[in-house]
Hints:
Blueprint: H1 2-27, H2 29-37, H3 41-67, H4 75-91, H5 96-109, H6 113-142, H7 150-175, H8 177-181, H9 186-204, H10 206-233, H11 240-252, H12 265-276, H13 281-310, H14 314-318
Helix pairs in contact: 1-12, 1-13, 3-4, 3-6, 3-10, 4-5, 4-13, 5-6, 6-9, 6-10, 6-11, 9-10, 10-11, 10-13, 11-12, 12-13
Amino acid sequence: MKNKKIISIALSVFLGGALLYIILKRVGLSNIAFYMSNLNYWWILISLATYTLDMLLRAYKWQYMLKDNGVFIGVADSFKAYNLGNTLNIIVPAKIGDIARSYYLKNKFNHSYSSTLPSVFLDRFFDVLGVYVVLLISGIYVLNKVSMPPWFFNLIFIGVAFLIIAFFVIQYLMKNKFKVSALKNEKIKNLLLQLINALEGSIKDRVKFITLLIYSSLIWICDGLVTYFVLLSLGGAMNPLAAAFATMVATLTKVFPVTPGGIGVFEGTMVIILSLFGLTGELAGMLSALTHIIMNLYTLIIGVYVLVTSGINVSTIQGEKVNK
């Protein structure tokens, strides 16, 4: 089993690296050198500031969700846990990072998984909703300007189908709460009940639902602006709505991780979408790669810092049982 996991990770890393290599090869070494030597670092600083705001909003949103389960932490710890989780999602092609967030709180404050994991799942649910809100807003402009390929609509259909399935699963869980209460395993039962309570509280409470949706939408708007500011740093020009649209479509490819952090897949999708708006393959490739590098490097620096200062072992997280 362990060997299969290692092979799976190795193949995912290889695939991501191969896709990224193809994209950078298309840009060309001479063009990369040209773009980097002419980079406007003021726009890079603005993009970093925007991404910092992005991550702070994520930390505030998760902190807001945790309060409903009686978990009270500071924004700093929420920020650290979030970046730790995202760091592991970049390194490992699976959503182990989502568990790592809860592990951080368990390791530091002894909070049980049943009190923190439901908010992680809920956070992901609102993340997807937020992507679609920004996609809808930017799409109103984009779809009037550009004819999209069939695969794009297939991707949107898959995403919508995922949301519909998630909605029905949520409805089923809320209506059959008594079945969960009858489970014999107390820890799993408590975990599921906490999840159901978190879902009920966020969906039935209109103020809370709108608040979380606004948080999520602002987060993804920041992501779109990061792409736009990086484009400006490269000397390019594009409507910010088009940049946000391309970023959201590329983000959807990371819902089901094929490569660590969506590396290669994210860039490839962005190149295809950006080329529809008139960007050259070289500029689109450079923009997608540099944007993803900035986001991932930012996350990795903070995530590694958290790992070192907290003494958390990644292998320990992988072996954790979330019913504790």
